[in-house]
């Protein structure tokens, strides 16, 4: 059986090389070729012993995902649709800013959590992605962007696990992928620049704190259980008291970090002044610098029955939180003209999968069609 080496973190690759009779330093060389240089052809890995290259042929591969389509927004955001087989597809989004380049990655095909305000949740759940399928999104995006921008420097400085799916429901595949992102022989990202977003799976938050304490974002969206039960069904299993306690435990493993609470602003649902004051009371046990709020404008889709909060209401809500000494930001909507904004990913992915069956035969290193403005270096 052929092993896709994108599936393995460095320790896993070292163990695999040992099975082939090779020393650890060969695994480090191989790991660098794959992740730092984006090379998939063993023949092109010039400093590997020819004997190792010959061994790898036929038993191993470096195989990314099929790129079905690529869309570029007027604001420079790029969205890719990847085929993961079985009629399923996932999306990843690159968001360029002056001081960083952020890639939003998917962890599942669909999502089982079913948050009321998220179009991905309305799609339903198909399956977990493998570690290779998770890291392949970063592998493709990083090396595509370097070629496109003619850059030898790293383009992606931040990764957020905020794409399709609930990352902590795919924990076994998530952890090796995170380790590849953090490894200095891989992408060398700081753990503060890798963020896992969760709807609040308390036991897995505790495991993540021990195994790989990267930055944590919690999808909160309501200040009390009654309201959150209707917006985030997972709250019925892990209510707010348990979730807040888990957040405190997480910070014990990363005392210089903070928790980001994501809050989708829904008109007439969770955006009142009373809601804001209740939210302040909910997190008052956190030291001022240990948590922050990210208020997210809702991105409407037809079946939700919800609308976006008015800008003046968002500002009034933010002022109440800020006046309590809590850091609060209002997320700038990016990529909404290509359905790449928060909560919009792959809302119609099944239809587009059928439309793009012919394109699904194209592999990641091929040229893929770009719909919309072509990204130029000045946009990144």
Unreliable stretches, pLDDT < 50, 5 or more residues? 340-345, 349-380
Quote the CATH topology of the largest domain: TIM Barrel
Oligomer: single chain
Overall domain count: 2
CATH superfamily of the largest domain: Aldolase class I
Return the structural class: alpha/beta
Q: Could you give a quick summary of the protein structure above?
A:
It contains twelve helices and 15 strands. With 380 residues, the chain is α/β, with parallel strands linked by helices.
Descriptive report:
The protein has 12 helices and 15 strands. The chain starts with a strand and ends in a 9-residue tail after the last strand. The protein folds into 2 domains: 59 residues, DNA polymerase, domain 1 (Orthogonal Bundle); 295 residues, Aldolase class I (TIM Barrel, Alpha-Beta Barrel), CATH 3.20.20.70. The chain is an alpha/beta fold and 380 residues long. It has an 11-stranded mixed β-sheet. Strands 1-2 form a two-stranded parallel ribbon. A two-stranded antiparallel sheet has the order 7-8. The longest helix is centred in the middle third of the chain and has 19 residues. The chain is elongated and about 70 Å long. Helix 6 links the parallel strand 9 and strand 10. Helix 5 runs parallel beside helix 6 and helix 10 runs parallel beside helix 11. The C terminus is likely disordered.
């Amino acid at each position: 059986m052929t092993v896709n080496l994108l599936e393995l973190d460095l320790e896993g690759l070292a163990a695999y090389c040992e099975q082939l009779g090779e020393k650890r330093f060969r695994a480090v060389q191989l790991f660098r070729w794959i992740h730092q240089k984006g090379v998939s052809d063993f023949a092109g890995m010039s400093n590997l012993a020819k004997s190792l290259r010959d061994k790898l042929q036929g038993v191993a591969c470096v195989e990314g995902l099929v790129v079905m389509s690529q869309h570029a927004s007027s604001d420079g955001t790029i969205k890719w649709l990847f085929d993961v087989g079985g009629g399923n597809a996932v999306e990843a989004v690159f968001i360029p800013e002056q001081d960083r380049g952020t890639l939003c990655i998917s962890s599942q095909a669909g999502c089982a959590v079913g948050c009321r305000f998220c179009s991905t949740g309305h799609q339903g759940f198909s399956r977990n992605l493998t570690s290779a399928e998770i890291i392949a999104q970063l592998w493709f995006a990083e090396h595509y962007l370097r070629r496109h921008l003619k850059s030898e420097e790293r383009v992606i400085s931040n990764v957020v696990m905020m794409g399709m799916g609930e990352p902590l429901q795919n924990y076994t595949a998530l952890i090796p992928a995170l380790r590849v992102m953090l490894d200095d022989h891989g992408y060398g990202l700081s753990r503060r620049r890798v963020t896992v977003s969760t709807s609040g799976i308390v036991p897995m938050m505790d495991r993540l704190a021990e195994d790989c304490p990267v930055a944590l974002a919690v999808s909160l969206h309501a200040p009390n259980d009654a309201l959150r039960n209707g917006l985030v069904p997972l709250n019925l299993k892990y209510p707010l008291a348990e979730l807040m306690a888990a957040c405190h435990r997480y910070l014990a493993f990363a005392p210089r970090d903070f928790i980001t609470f994501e809050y989708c602003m829904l008109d007439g649902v969770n955006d009142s002044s009373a809601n804001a004051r209740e939210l302040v009371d909910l997190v008052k046990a956190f030291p001022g610098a240990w948590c922050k709020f990210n208020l997210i404008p809702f991105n409407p889709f037809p079946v939700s029955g919800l609308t976006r909060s008015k800008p003046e209401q968002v500002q009034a809500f933010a002022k109440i939180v800020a006046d309590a000494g809590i850091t609060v930001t209002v997320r700038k909507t990016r990529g909404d003209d290509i359905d790449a904004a928060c909560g919009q990913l792959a809302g119609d992915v099944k239809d587009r999968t059928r439309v793009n069956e012919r394109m699904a035969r194209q592999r990641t290193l091929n040229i893929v069609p770009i719909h919309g403005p072509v990204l130029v270096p000045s946009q990144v």
